[in-house]
Design a protein that fits this description.
This protein is α+β, with helices and mostly antiparallel strands. It has helices spanning about 15-20, 60-75, 90-100, 125-135; strands spanning about 5-10, 20, 25, 35-45, 45-55, 105-110, 115-120. The termini are far apart.
Length: about 140
């Protein structure tokens, strides 16, 4: 099994703007007490993207989970321009858009964050997932 993992501490563009919480308002991850960790892992049937918050503020954790839930829904629709936690390789995105019915995308909560799991039985879709996991996310596509 081939495994690729990349870790980075970074602010996530557009996350604060989309994380309108009922009690606390928008959450600005750039001002969070600890960074958000973004991890990618590829395997033979796809891969996963994991976001983990280094602090304990529940509003930041909820913002991360909301962003990943919205990303999972967008991926299921084949609407990758809303997904800012993946790379922006246009060839891979086009392949996944064309093969969206061959793609399974689920959200899983993890302690202090969440993860997107992208799987497929189609070799071209798996190769496209791997390509996106190897490409660093660019600026927000919204």
């Amino acid at each position: 099994m081939r495994l690729l993992a990349v870790f980075a501490a970074l602010p996530l563009p557009g996350l604060a703007a989309q994380a309108q919480l009922r009690t606390n308002g928008p959450v600005d991850l750039a001002m969070a007490e600890r960074p958000v960790r973004l991890a990618y892992a590829a395997n033979e049937s796809g891969g996963r993207v994991t976001l983990i918050y280094g602090g304990t503020d529940p509003s930041v954790v909820e913002s991360i989970r909301l962003r990943l839930l919205e990303s999972a829904a967008a991926i299921r629709r084949g609407d990758f321009h809303l997904v800012t936690v993946l790379g922006s390789d246009s060839t891979a995105l086009q392949v996944l858009t064309d093969l969206r019915h061959q793609l399974r995308c689920t959200f899983r909560p993890v302690p202090r964050g969440g993860e997107l799991v992208l799987l497929s039985d189609d070799d071209a879709a798996v190769a496209a997932i791997h390509q996106l996991l190897q490409t660093r996310p660019g600026p927000s596509r919204d």
